[in-house]
Amino acid sequence: MLRRVLIANRGEIACRILRTLRAEGVASVAVYHHEDRAAPHVQLADAAVRLEAEIPSAAYLDQAQIVAAAKHTDADAIHPGYGFLSENATFAERVAGAGLTFVGPDAQAMRLMGDKIHARAFALEQGLAVAPSIVASDAGSVAAQAAQIGFPLLIKAAAGGGGKGMRIVRSATELSESLRLAAAEAQRYFGDGRVYAERYIERPRHIEVQVLGDGRGNVVHLFERECSLQRRYQKIIEESPAPNLPGELRRAICAAAVRLASAARYRNAGTVEFVLAPDGSFYFLEMNTRLQVEHPVTEYVLGVDLVAEQLRIAAGGALSMAQRDLEPRGHAIECRICAEEAEHEFRPATGRIGILRVPEGANLRFDGGIRAGQAITPAFDSLLAKLVAYGASRAAAADTLADALRSTVLLGVPTNIDYLERVLRHPRFRSGPLHTGFLSEYAQELLPHEQPAPAAAALLAALLTEPEFRRAALEVPEPYASIGPWHN
Amino acid sequence: MPYRVQLDGRDIEVQILGRRPLLRVRIGAAEHSVAPEPAAADEFALAVDGVSYRGWRCTVGDEVHVRLDGRTYLVRFVRRDAKGGGTAAQDEICASMPGVVVGVHCEPGQVVQAGERLLTLESMKLQMTIVASRAARVQALHVAPETVFERGALLVSLAPEEARDP
Q1: Closest Cβ opposite residue B4 in set A460, A473, A488
Q2: Which of A261, A359, A408, A474 measures 20 to 30 Å from A153, CA to CA?
Q3: Pure H helices in A130-171
Q4: Neighbouring residues of B8: CB distance < 8 A, sequence distance ≥ 6
C-alpha cells in the first residue's frame, strides 16, 4: 500500500484524489503555484509544496520541481490527475527513475497511445476498426489523398487531445489553410506539429469504455460512457450507461476496448474512445491513459472508487474485481460547470467567485475545487466543478441534476449553469438521439426564454445596490428623484 | 432623466416615476411598483407588482450578477463616460480577454472591407476571428503572431476609409 501520495495537479481533480487518499488512510501532498495558495486543494492536503514559475500553469508542468517536492516530503508516489503531466511518458519515467511510483500506466503504454497515429495502427493490428484516414508528413500529400477519402474531413493533431488542433474541413478550398492552422495549434500545445485527417462521420456519437488493467494482460471493462454532448469538441455532459445502446452493440464496443488494452498489457485506469456512426458501425478514436474528467458517472453506476483502484494497482496489487462481478445499476449523468458565456459562443469568462452555494442531496455529487473569494483567471482551464446525479432511471437522474443546477448559486463569474439546466430539460435530450452536433443543432431552442417579470425584479435588485439609484429611489425627496446620476 | 443599464447585454432605460405610497419605476415601456424587503447579506427580497422575489446578488465592479428563480442575470451600469462595446467598429480594437495571437490577416496601411478578417486570437481554449465591422485602413498593428496579450490590450488601430468600388 502507498503511504504518502503527491498530487501533481490542482482544482477539482486534486480535491477528488484527496478525498480517496483520506478515505484510504494515505497521507497527501499538494503542490501549488503562488496564485493558487489559498485554493481548496492546498488547504485540504496534509502538506503542500509551493512550485516556482512565472506562468501559473507552468508550475504544474515542472517535472523537476514536482519530483523534488515528492522526494522532499517523503512521498512514495505521484498521482498526476488528468491534463498537465498525466499523459507525459517522460514524466512517468522520471518519477520511476527517482524511485517513486507513478499512479498510472507505464511509459511505454503512454507513448504508444499518446501518439494518435501509432495508436491507430496498433488498434488496426488488434482488429479494431478505425475511420478511413490520411496519415502524411506534409500538407501536400494530405491534400492529394483527401480527394480519395472525400469530404468532410476531420483534421487532428497526432499528439493531440482535448479538442485542440481539431478542425472539420468541408471542401478542398479550405484544406490547406485548415491544415496550416491545425499544425500551428498542435505545435503550440503539444510541441509536435504533425497532423492527420480522417473521414468525418456525420451525426456521430462519442462512446468511451473505462478499463482497468493489471499490467499482466488482465483487463476488465467498467462499461461505457456516452460523451456526445460537446461544444467546441469538448464534452460538457456525460452519462453512463449510454442511452438506447443495443445490448449487442454495447458488448461489442466493450469487448473491443478490452482487446486493445489487453494487447497493450495495459496497467492502471484508461479509457478507450470510439466514434459510433448512426448505422451502428464504430471506430477506435484514441485511448486516454489516465483518469477521465467524467469518471464519476462510472463510479456511480458500478459503486466503485476508481482512484482507490488506481492506487491499488499502482502499489502492485491485483485487480479487485472480476468482469462477472461488474453490473451497472441505474443511471448517472455529469455536467461540467465552466466559467464561460454560453450565449456568446461559450467564450471563457473570468472574474471572482463572490457567492457560492453548492447543492446537496441524495444521489448528488459536487466535485469542486473552488471557494468563495477565489479569482477565476485565464491562467487555467475554465472547468470550475462537476455536478453529478444518480437515479434509478435516466429521467430520474436528469431531473435530479437539473433541479440541483437550479439550486446552485455561483455568482461573480459567468458560468454555463443555466445553459446546462436548459439542455437537461430539453425534450430532445430526454428522447434522443444524441450526437456530437446536438448542441449546435438545437442551439436556438437552447437559448434562454424571455421572462419579463423576474427579469424586471433582477434588474431592480441590481439597481438597488447602486448608491445613487438607491438614494434617488428610497431616500431623496420627490423632485430630485428622477434626476439620474449617470445619464447621457 | 432615465438611468441606463444593460441587462444581459441589452440596453434598458429605467426611470423613477414616484416614490409614494410605493416606489414606481418604468423599465423600458413597462411600469412597475417596487417594495424592497429585508434580506440576509448577499441576498435580496423585493416585491414587484405585488409578487415577492427572493434571490442572490453579487457586485463585480460595474456589474451586478443576480440569481433569481434558477436564472442568472448580468446587469451592467452604463456610465456617462462609457463608450460602446469592443467591436471593430471602433478605431482602436482591444482584447476583450487575455490570450495569444495565432494569425495576422492584415498589415499596416492595408484597406479592409467590412467583414474582412484582421486577426485570429486564442484565449484559454477558444479561437476567434476579429473582423472589421466597416471599411477602414489599418493604421497600426500592435501585435504579431505568438504575441501574448492581456485583457484590454490594444491590438489594431484603424483609420476611417470609404468603401471602394470593387
Answers
A1: A488
A2: A261
A3: 139-149
A4: A343, B73, B74
| Apex A390 CA angle, A388 and A394, nearest 5 | 110
CB contact under 8 A, A418 and B70: yes
Q: Confirm if B88 and B105 have CB atoms less than 8 A apart.
A: no
Q: Tell me which residues of A are annotated as active site.
A: 290
Comparing CA positions, the residue from A129, A120, A116 lying closest to residue A281 is A129
Rg from Cα positions in chain B: 22
Q: Which residues of A touch B30 (CB under 8 A)?
A: 452, 456
Q: What distance, in Å, lies between the first and last C-alpha atoms of chain B?
A: 46
Q: What is the pLDDT of residues A122-155, one digit of tens each?
A: 999 999 999 888 876 676 777 778 878 888 898 8
Select from A486, A17, A459 the least CA-distant residue to B27.
A459
Contact state of A357 with B30 under an 8 Å Cβ cutoff: no
Kindly determine whether residue B7 and residue A411, on different chains, have CB atoms separated by under 8 Å: no
Q: Which chain B residues touch A478 with a CB distance below 8 Å? A: 18-20
How far, in Å, CA of A25 to CA of A382, rounded? 31
DSSP state of A201: P
Helix (H) or strand (E) holding A452, with range, is helix A452-463
Calpha distance A448→A456 (Å, rounded) = 15
Order of strands across the sheet that contains A77-79: A47-51, A27-33, A4-7, A77-79, A101-102
Closest chain A residue to B67, measured at CA: A409
Instruction: Determine the straight-line distance between the first and last CA of chain A, rounded to whole angstroms.
Output: 69
Q: What is the DSSP letter of A35?
A: G
Q: Which three cell numbers stand for residue A225?
A: 460512457
**Sequence-distant (≥ 6) Cβ neighbours of residue A230 within 8 angstroms:** A163, A206, A236, A436, A439
Q: How many interchain CB pairs under 8 A, A with B?
A: 188
CB contacts, 8 Å: A346 with chain B: 126
Question: Which residues of chain A make contact with B151, given a CB cutoff of 8 A?
Answer: 350
pLDDT tens digits for A174-208? 888 888 888 888 888 777 888 888 888 889 999 99
Return the residue of B nearest to A409 by Cα: B67
